[in-house]
Amino acid sequence: MATRIDGKALAAKVKEEVAVEAEQLSRRPGLAVILVGNDPASRVYVNGKERDCAECGFRSFEHALPEDTAQETLLGLIEELNRDPQVDGILCQLPLPAHLDEDAVLNAIAPDKDVDCFHPYNVGRLMIGDPVFLPCTPAGVMEMLREYGISVRGKRCVVLGRSNIVGKPMAMLLLQQDGTVTVCHSRTPDLAAITRQADILVSAVGRVGLITADMVKEGAVVIDVAMNRNEAGKLCGDVDYEAVEPRAACITPVPGGVGPMTRAMLMRNILAAARRHQAEI
Ligand SMILES: NC(=O)C1=CN([C@@H]2O[C@H](COP(=O)(O)OP(=O)(O)OC[C@H]3O[C@@H](n4cnc5c(N)ncnc54)[C@H](OP(=O)(O)O)[C@@H]3O)[C@@H](O)[C@H]2O)C=CC1
Ligand SMILES: Nc1nc(=O)c2c([nH]1)NC[C@@H]1CN(c3ccc(C(=O)N[C@@H](CCC(=O)O)C(=O)O)cc3)C=[N+]21
């Protein structure tokens, strides 16, 4: 029987701590959320983040824009939010509609309000080991490992996926904790041969049933970042949970695993941004 890593419970604990700390501030932290278009999944995520803000005693300012919003309009809004002293963090929900230039949008967010840690400046600071903000999803994974007493030092870590949101920053945080890290992607041949070596396996691909029992070493820690819908429309990750669970030492469920932790880490970043902004005044 593997230990089930309860992301939902840990996220609740983190948010309580954040709420207590937020009370000490002279002004309530604020998050601006930008949502372009009508993607139902994005709507659900944004609602979740706004609920988290309320739980932490933060203000949230939602900016829902139509699908056909022009690039200049979006950049204009970001400029406005960059200047707004009530806004400590700005989150532009991804993915954006195809006609918008995602890189240009993420570049426009002031680095000191970039609570997603997507701006090249913050990515660079992370890369050199002197981060301003921690990337929410990878930081959520690290917090889970820490809480469950799982040391990364000297462990063979295998990360599946190399996106800027999850895979790459995940590999960086594991490396900074002295893991020996391998990153796999769609061009990696014989994935199973690599995953079988993992002491800590992090899957962030987005494919139902990708990780089967034969791909996992006995006693491994299995972290499932993915957020998929199966044929029945049920939320699930990359890992065949039922099959893999008996082999693993620890495993995260979907839902109730990495997802809630991502949001809790976002709250931490907003608190950190607010502290920095208030110290400047
Ligand atoms: N829990 C949470 O908080 C979050 C969850 N997610 C979820 O995590 C998953 C990944 O998200 P994201 O990183 O944004 O997705 P992307 O689609 O940007 O990246 C997916 C990665 O998986 C790789 N990949 C695709 N097929 C395979 C394969 N067969 N074997 C190995 N690697 C493969 C791709 O390789 P290549 O680069 O070669 O194309 C790519 O690097 C999604 O399910 C998403 O919904 C995302 C963000 C937060
Ligand atoms: N600018 C930006 N920042 C992001 O951090 C970002 C983004 N865009 N775009 C999409 C991805 C995805 N993501 C999730 C966060 C929480 C859950 C989450 O809380 N999941 C719950 C279930 C939610 C449900 O029921 O649908 C769970 O796993 O238990 C899921 C996915 C953040 N992302």
TrEMBL record:
Pathway terms, separated by semicolons: One-carbon metabolism; tetrahydrofolate interconversion
InterPro entries to which the protein is assigned, alphabetical: Aminoacid_DH-like_N_sf (IPR046346), NAD(P)-bd_dom_sf (IPR036291), THF_DH/CycHdrlase (IPR000672), THF_DH/CycHdrlase_cat_dom (IPR020630), THF_DH/CycHdrlase_NAD-bd_dom (IPR020631)
EC number, UniProt record: 1.5.1.5, 3.5.4.9
Protein residues bound to NADP(+): G161, R162, S163
One Pfam family from the record: THF_DHG_CYH
Domain Tetrahydrofolate dehydrogenase/cyclohydrolase NAD(P)-binding positions: 135-277
Domain Tetrahydrofolate dehydrogenase/cyclohydrolase catalytic: 5-116
Keywords recorded for this protein, A-Z: Amino-acid biosynthesis, Histidine biosynthesis, Hydrolase, Methionine biosynthesis, Multifunctional enzyme, NADP, One-carbon metabolism, Oxidoreductase, Purine biosynthesis
Function: Catalyzes the oxidation of 5,10-methylenetetrahydrofolate to 5,10-methenyltetrahydrofolate and then the hydrolysis of 5,10-methenyltetrahydrofolate to 10-formyltetrahydrofolate.
Family indicated by similarity: Belongs to the tetrahydrofolate dehydrogenase/cyclohydrolase family.
Subunit structure: Homodimer.
Name the record gives this protein: Bifunctional protein FolD
Annotated source species: Oscillibacter valericigenes
Gene: folD
